[in-house]
Amino acid sequence: MSHIIILVIAGLTLAANLNANESRREDLNKTSIISNLITTEDLGAIEEEGPIAAAGKISRYLGQADVGSSPKDQAGPDFEETSPQTVAGNSALVRQILSPVEENLRRRDKIIVYAVREGDSISQIAEEFGISNQTIIWENNLSAYSVIRPGDKLVILPVSGIRHKVLKGETLAGIAKKYGLDAEKILEFNKLASADDIQIGEQLVVPGGKKIYPAAAYTARNVYAPTGAIPASTGRLLWPTTCRRLTQYFTWRHSGVDIACSLGAPIYAANGGVVIKAAAAGYNGGYGKMIIIDHGNGQQTLYGHMSKLYVGAGQTVSRGQQIGAMGSTGRSTGPHLHFEVRTGGVRRNPLSYIR
Asked: Where do the segments described as Disordered lie (predicted)?
């Protein structure tokens, strides 16, 4: 009973002190029971954070980024920094961070000049810019066997194709017909106001265009007999085309190797020399349209089943020069090149002579 009376008195005393402002919270002993009852902890505002975005891997322009550098440092001055774009609702739409090369390809519509760096190759550069190897080769007057070195400058078109210099009397329709393309594509890509908005000497980018070689005007059996000794070419033979898929090897029944590729693929001289035969028509013992080049020192190479010839008998050719296009003429069941090597009049295995 005495305990109940003490608790009632304590309660009444506490209520009286609070109403009279005689007891302040900060004046109470921090360890007292009353302090623990009336003191509240200031928790402050609670903020929610979204997920922390991880740093994306961004490559240098035509190279690899340094670890630890910022996207701007990695990308160079032309890199456009991207920020997440939010939308209403419970989700956010974030634009993917692309490499500087991809960003460049997305908006590039102008011709640029690229400085070759250590380790670059034509195929690698073409892949980085999203264009074909031939586009770089045609624009820079190279061949498939040209060597590029650090510091060399290459002109890079914005798309796979070719540049055409407008000549006197040419029309846009005529240019498009020449390349077998739609004039509207040339008009749109070059941002021309109309088909009449072309000028003599103007360089037009022809998307999808291919280099046009002069039509062969050689007789069916154009043969050249050298009157003097042909200077001997040096070095191993070059691979004569851009493809490397062998469909038939050299055997006692097959006098060369067959290299399969697409119709019209370029064919190159395996070495420098003089064209001693250029047959632009006829069966020619199964070889179809064919070329024989004498490289001197008793060595000759033969190129069979061609669709077009770009050189004639008696013409001197250089190592790696394009001499024709792949076809399926003569005794052939599909586009390929029949390639022979003859030494001292004897047919040899070409794979023993090619580097």
From this structure: 66-85
Determine how β-strand 336-343 pairs with β-strand 257-260: antiparallel
Q: How far apart are CA 161 and CA 167, in angstroms?
A: 19
User: HSE-up of 233 (CA within 13 Å, CB side)?
Assistant: 22
DSSP summary character for residue 188: H
Q: Which of these, 247, 298, 245, lies nearest to 273 by C-alpha position?
A: 298
- Using left for φ > 0, alpha for ψ between -120 and 50, and beta otherwise, residue 141 falls in left
pLDDT per residue as tens digits for the range 333-350: 889 999 999 998 899 999
| pLDDT on residue 15 | 63
Where along the chain do its domains lie? 104-156, 162-207, 222-352
Q: Yes or no: say if 164 and 175 are a contact pair by the CB < 8 Å rule.
A: yes
Structure tokens at 167: 């000549």
DSSP string, 197-217: ---TT-EEEEET--PPPPPP-
CATH code for the part of the protein at 222-352:
2.70.70.10
3-state secondary structure of 307: strand
SS (H, E, C) 240-285: CECCCEEEECCCCCCCCEEEECCCCCEEECCCCEEEEEEECCCCHH
Phi/psi for 33 (5° steps) reads: -65, -40
Residue 258's beta-bridge partner residues? Answer: 248, 338
The pLDDT tens digits of the residues spanning 12-39 come to 766 665 555 444 444 444 444 444 444 4
Say yes or no: do domains 104-156 and 222-352 share a fold. no
pLDDT (tens digit, 9 = 90+) per residue, 48-70?
A: 333 333 333 323 233 333 333 33
* 138 secondary structure, DSSP code: H
- The answer as to CATH 3.10.350.10 being correct for domain 104-156 is yes
Alpha carbon dihedral 96, 56, 60, 160, in 10-degree steps, equals: -30
**What CATH number should be reported for the domain whose range is 162-207?**
3.10.350.10
Provide the whole-model pTM. Answer: 0.45
pLDDT digits (tens, 9 = 90+) for 78-134: 433 333 333 444 433 444 444 445 544 445 678 889 999 998 888 889 888 889 888
Q: Judge whether 249 and 233 are in contact, CB under 8 Å.
A: no
| CB contact at 8 A, 319 and 295 | no
